[in-house]
Design brief:
The chain is mainly alpha-helical. It is about 65% helix and about 10% strand. It contains two helices and four strands; from the N terminus they run ββαββα. Strands 1-2 form a two-stranded antiparallel sheet. The longest helix has 30 residues. It is elongated.
Length: about 80
């Protein structure tokens, strides 16, 4: 069993898997930051700048790879 997600074309995608995982981690941080303390664990306040610094390179990687794949399809049909 592969742990990678499949993109729209049916191929396994590392970049899509990284983006979805990072988004879930950021969302979990956002939700947990509502509480400051849970059973002896201090939770850091949510920082939008840090979240964007974490997500931006992964999103750029995903959309960059997607646009390169689209260009390859156009070039191969010409």
């Amino acid at each position: 069993m592969k742990l990678l997600l499949r993109s729209n074309d049916g191929k396994y995608s590392y970049s899509l898997t990284m983006v979805i995982t990072a988004f879930i981690a950021t969302l979990l941080w956002y939700i947990l930051s509502i509480f400051t303390h849970i059973k002896g664990v201090d939770i850091r306040a949510f920082d939008g700048g840090a979240a964007m610094a974490f997500l931006s390179p992964l999103l750029l990687n995903y959309y960059g790879a997607k646009s390169l794949d689209a260009k390859r399809v156009v070039d191969s049909t010409a």
